[in-house]
Design brief:
Structural class: alpha+beta
Distance between the termini: 56 Å
Radius of gyration: 19 Å
Shape: elongated
Number of helices: 8
Helix content: 40-55%
Order of helices and strands: HHEHEHEEHEHHH
Length: 198
């Protein structure tokens, strides 16, 4: 099994062929190759002693939210794969799940000619790629696990900006306040008062 797109069997249908070979008692010999998950993790600058690979998030909204909800308190560094046309949606979902100031690293077209590595926060990544309307190439997203810095207090202006972005997606002020309260550990009533000022 040979591929020009990463390590066979990692987040691709090669798993089915490998499984069939094992069931048929055909020996499978691994020859190490490039894999975006390890490449991105190694260069991320985020903790690497413990990590979890999440691959592609589910396409169906309910399953996607359930998966992200399960990662809300994950302390290990997390690695995701994403297609360019879904990048903004995934970044927005990550912002809603984790705090907007959570550190993140985006690797695009890793080990290829147009490789690009970007480091910042989830909120900064959203702003960057909203301006770049058509990001190209496959993305590997490395997200820092939960730690004590997640409880950093945002200014009122930053909180209003976050609330406004959530409301602009068609969410009510009440629901936006509830969502932001979950990731900032601030009271929903305080956030709702700020939402009323927008």
């Amino acid at each position: 099994l040979v591929t020009d797109a990463g390590m066979p069997g990692i987040s691709d249908p090669g798993y089915e062929l490998i499984k069939a070979c094992i069931e048929a008692n055909i020996e499978v010999v691994p020859i190490p190759g490039v894999t975006a998950v390890i490449t991105a993790l190694a260069v991320s600058g985020l903790p690497t002693e413990r990590f979890c690979f999440e691959g592609f998030l589910p396409g169906k909204e309910k399953l996607r939210q359930e998966r992200l909800e399960g990662l809300k308190t994950e302390t290990r560094t997390m690695v995701f794969y994403e297609a360019p046309h879904k990048l903004i949606k995934t970044l927005e979902d990550l912002r809603e799940t984790f705090v907007p100031t959570r550190k993140i690293v985006l690797g695009r077209e890793l080990t290829k000619l147009y490789e690009e590595i970007w480091r910042g926060t989830i909120a900064e990544a959203i702003n960057l790629y909203r301006e770049n309307k058509t990001p190209k190439g496959e993305f590997t997203i490395v997200v820092m696990g939960k730690d004590k810095t997640d409880n950093i207090q945002l200014s009122e202006e930053e909180l209003k900006r976050e609330l406004k972005q959530i409301i602009e997606r068609g969410v009510s002020r009440s629901q936006a306040s509830r969502q932001l309260a979950q990731v900032t550990n601030l009271s929903r009533s305080r956030l709702y008062k700020l939402a009323l000022e927008i």
